[in-house]
Amino acid sequence: MLGKLSDKVLGLVLREERAGACVPEHGNYCYCRSGKKYYMNCYGICTKSTKGC
């Protein structure tokens, strides 16, 4: 649990997808905005995909 929390905090700081361990939600669909889909990255942060809605 502490490892997942530290990955999320690190993700907020780095804003990159270089994760040591993925969160269980990794790859899950978040939402659609401005014609782009957003998915969970390894840090549990929704990131923009190249795929359209």
Automatic annotation (TrEMBL):
This is Uncharacterized protein. It comes from Streptomyces albiaxialis.
